[in-house]
Amino acid sequence: MIKYYFRITPYILDSNHNVVDPLYTTYEDLPINDEIKNKIKLWVKTIKSYVEKPNSYYSIKSIHWYALKLKEEIQQYLGEEWKIICCSKQKIIGYLFDELKKVANFHKKEGHYFKAIEYYKGSIALNPRDYEVLNSIAFCYYELDLLEDACYHLKLNIEQSPFHAPAFFNLGLCYRKSNDFVVAGIYFEKAKNLNPENVDYIINYAHNFIDLKFYKMAIEILLAASIKMNGNREILEKLSYAYLHAEEYLESIKLLQELILLYPDDPTLIFKLGFCFSLIDENEKSTKCYVDALKIDPDYGECYYNIALNYHFQGLDHLSVDMYVRALLRNSQHAEHFWQRNNLLLNLDIPDDFKEKILIFGSENGDERAKIILEDSNLHQQNSYQ
Q: Tell me, what DSSP letter sits at residue 342?
């Protein structure tokens, strides 16, 4: 009678056929001597080492060979009434692949892309046909701006799975990031054709025509999609964006107003409407939109920044500075954008000491341009403003 199963794999079956993971067991319940137990532990340590260092000197062949030797030794020690089951090389590969992929996914999630790539490479060495791993390693390369490597793995993915739409879509993103909009469009179109209901694919396919300045083509694609998808919000927002770039501002405003009726508590939509009004010199309407957005989100820094610009164009410079400071308080990055557009602050008709106060405030809050202007201008004094 078979009394006990012992499986030389990453798993052990106990006498009740319950699975026990040897990575966490001490083997005290096994009727074998300490010498054999230590050999099992060494085998488990080898498995762990392979997972921890996928490019180590351990090979699948050597791991499997050691498992076979252990099987023979345990069988000889326990006798014929025990059944010893040794795993296949393929099962070892499957287990190691899953473990490496798990570690790689963790590092990818944490943003440790170089570390993730190391483990994905280990996974690919065991199973070069897994489309999820190929897609994931490409994502890591993409985030690191290593676009050639990203494209290489995505194309491998397509070779293995020629109908895998995400690979085509991600290739489009890579080529867009490298400003090759023509090739990007080819891959976006293929992704869209493989999955015509995917909103992201439609939006990016249309956006690519905006990048190419083929605005009418983008508008046609988005109009057709909005009808087919019964007014999908994301598509309508992108359609408004396309109208904006085509300088069809009234169409963009009309769409945004319709969306705001459906989503009245979304400050982003109201902000976009305000921006469109500013493009047709409706500064008062524009400012009102920004104020309405701030009623919903009082920390919406872009609203303060754009209100500052509107006040400046209306000749209300003191109000403009007040709004600029409020934008700075919420996000110092707005200061850099502010200086890139104009040197509003230095041109204002306000006392020099107040200008210096604002410059010091900006420089102390991460505005590098403010620091440079402060150092180069005759406003700079020996002592910091208190």
A: -
Measured in degrees and rounded to the nearest 5, phi and psi for residue 6 equal: -130, 125
Residues in the chain: 386
pLDDT tens for each residue of 187-208: 999 999 999 999 999 999 999 9
Query: What is the torsional sign of CA 210, 212, 214, 220?
Result: negative
Q: Which amino acid would we find at residue 194?
A: L
Average pLDDT of every residue of the chain: 79
Tell me: pLDDT of 8 over 50.
no
The angle that helices 199-211 and 215-228 make with each other, rounded to 10 degrees, is 160
Q: Token pair for residue 223?
A: 């109009």
Of the candidates 193, 236, 161, the one whose C-alpha atom is nearest the C-alpha of residue 172 is 193
Judge whether 251 and 222 are in contact, CB under 8 Å: no
Name the residue type at position 135: N
Confidence of residue 344 (pLDDT cuts 50, 70, 90): low
